NADPH2:quinone reductase
Amino acid sequence: MKAVFYGRNGGPEVLEYGDVPDPAAGAGQVLVRVSAVSIEGGDLIHRRTVPPTSARHVGGYQAAGVVEAVGAGVTVVRPGQRVVGQADRGSHAELFVVPQERIFPVPDGLDLDLAAPVPVLFGTASDALFEFGRLRAGETVLVQGAAGGVGVACVQLAKRAGARVIGTARGADRLERLTALGMDAGIDHSAEDIGRRARELTGGAGVDLVVDMAGGAAVPQLLDALGHRGRYVVVGAAGGGPQSFSFADLLSKQLTVSGVYLALEIHTARVHDLVRGFLEDVASGDLTVPVDSVFPLRDAARAHAHVEEGHPFGRVLLHP
Ligand SMILES: NC(=O)c1ccc[n+]([C@@H]2O[C@H](COP(=O)([O-])OP(=O)(O)OC[C@H]3O[C@@H](n4cnc5c(N)ncnc54)[C@H](OP(=O)(O)O)[C@@H]3O)[C@@H](O)[C@H]2O)c1
């Protein structure tokens, strides 16, 4: 099959397109013929930092397609069914092997391009806001990195739950697009002080919850944005750089800090129930998956570079 692989860590330039042996579904596994790959933030981190398993390591962890075959003991789907799945690696290919506990059937009528990002985007956003962030109606949440994949999901879910949503993104045009998705107020993180602006927007009180996709140098500004007894949920560090919280930071406002790592719970009945609902909501149009752009699989290096440097709005996809 055709796939995108790498044999050393590095930037998008380490990605190569070529032939690798077809994978097979082992016991408890589902073989998916891929229609759409959702490029995840974690795909970039793995490519840069996690040692490849072979000279032709196929990366990527989320894609949608049609079940080609199932291994022994698979009960959740059958060949020919449309699915979206998540695995530790292998999505950047024509065929993708997924453990059955990480497979989600796609509802009739839902485009596989729109289904491909749903489990990680909305699952992570939901856990960040509600499972760990304990967001309630009437509270204010600040979403750092709101124009990215998880960010656009956070904005929509928080608004739907009755919260006031402040989001950060680079550039007025992307902030405008977030307003159309339900964001109440935007902060251009490349031009404004996030802490000062969030305090202005909340009459000095600060926000109840920060959901941070970016980490890096903005962490002190995000701590400043939080009010008394605020909660800070760590999702990712797309902005790189150092991230840390001192005892004094936590004590000064009685803050709570939580980390979210959806992959640890994506196999659970709790997350399956959530994702099933989100797939239905996207199918019915209640939730939106903004697709920034679609690249052919052979152009994965260009697509990864666009995710890293191009400030896409929502998700970037690959088509085998
Ligand atoms: N913990 C989990 O379970 C989990 C699950 C999914 C993803 N993640 C991680 O969470 C992060 C976000 O994921 P994603 O899929 O939403 O990634 P994404 O689509 O690439 O979006 C990342 C966002 O981060 C923002 N950003 C980057 N540098 C920034 C900076 N210095 N200051 C402020 N914002 C900055 C970008 O906003 P601008 O373009 O506007 O600058 C971009 O919208 C990634 O690091 C990913 O690996 C974690």
